[in-house]
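Appendix B. Extra example for self-study. Work through it before the problem class; the solution is given directly after the inputs so you can check yourself.
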Amino acid sequence: MIQKDDNELVFEVLQGSKSSFEILIERYQKKIYGMILQMTDDREMAKDLTQDVFVKAYLNLPKFNFKYRFFSWLYRIALNETMNCLKSHRRFESLEKAGNIAAEETVQNGDADEIRLIKLALRDLKNSYRSLILLKYYFGLSYEEISETMGISVNKVKDRLFNARLSLRNALDDKKFFDHD
Amino acid sequence: MIERELIERIHEDLEGKLEAAEQQKLKDTLAGNPEAESYYREWQKISSVFKRSGELSPDVQFTKEILNRLPMEPQTAKKPEPLIRPSFWNMPAFRYSMIFIAGAFLGFLAFTFLMPAGKISKAPSFQLKGAMYDSRNFDQMTTADNLMFENAMVKASFDVRYSSRIVEIRVSVSSLYPVQGMILFDYNSLQAMNVVNVSVNDQSSISASSNFIQINNSGNNQYVIQLLNKNSLPHQVSFKILQNDVPVYQNAVTVNKE
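Solution. Structure tokens for the complete assembly:
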């Protein structure tokens, strides 16, 4: 069965089809949840925000501009909602809680230590750098897709990513990430 | 300190964007630059850890909760503000009172040797002011036909394309005096959806009913019309141009030919 592309599904939702929106939820909920979880490191917050993102997307769908890609628009909503939430909540979890999250991951994967260090280093970055790194390395978006998502030019994406990478690298160096080889 | 250009090339290589020759050139550069080589290894490691952490992302199932939070009524496309600011003439009260006054005056003149003016135009069923959906985002559009007509008073073209979802008609009309264009279709097969006035002056307008779209044109104007394609069966879209209510052009195009 040929999968419908996102814009066709959006078009169908705007014609009144909720089942088409259900397909979009199934398609992106894991990625959106994953991104928000990386940004917030709080499962409950990530769960609530993920739902908020999709509800907000549904309510604003009539304003969606088909010139752009749906997932870039959705990620942008997710980024904005997460940033707003982080500003009004305590930003960082305690290291003990971070350790608990890491402990769960140890059961699944022996590289949990490196993943935990990446998470801790991401916390040292400012929000805009953190979201850029996640969009580039966690989601694998291209410069053009990031540009669409964040609403900035491709050149600005490249400049900011250059600085974000330096910041991340320095943060990882402080945590002796590169000594694990 | 590593040059920025070299850093960019390192990241391009890690993303698999370099050709074989460029890869080799980078490798040779790194061989002679231990700092850059170390940077390359560090980012190779960072990228791979990100990939692994992405695979660890927990499976979630929020669909039911999300759907329960959505409003009961379905979403529909919002009709945005018209592209052209409605002129004073488009206010119904003003327009009809001016028509009445003009009609009364002309009627009076008719009794004193002048011919009456043209019939009062019927009020359109409703005005279509929609946002066009970029048809490049849909499945491939097929050209049905490109109709063209020209006489001393009017020049028009109708470029008709269709996909499984929509029929798109790009209209270009140029007329010295007011003319009417009509696009007629079967309501069971097609439904008027969106109209964009690409370049339309104040003397012209476009409106729609359940089975036709009417263009009142004066001057040079362009419109884009989208009809919802309700099924995949072949059906006809008819085109007419009228001058002073007299048809000067009639033709039809078949969509969903395959």
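Self-check: Chain A touches chain B through 52 residues (CB under 8 Å). If your reasoning did not lead you there, revisit section 3.
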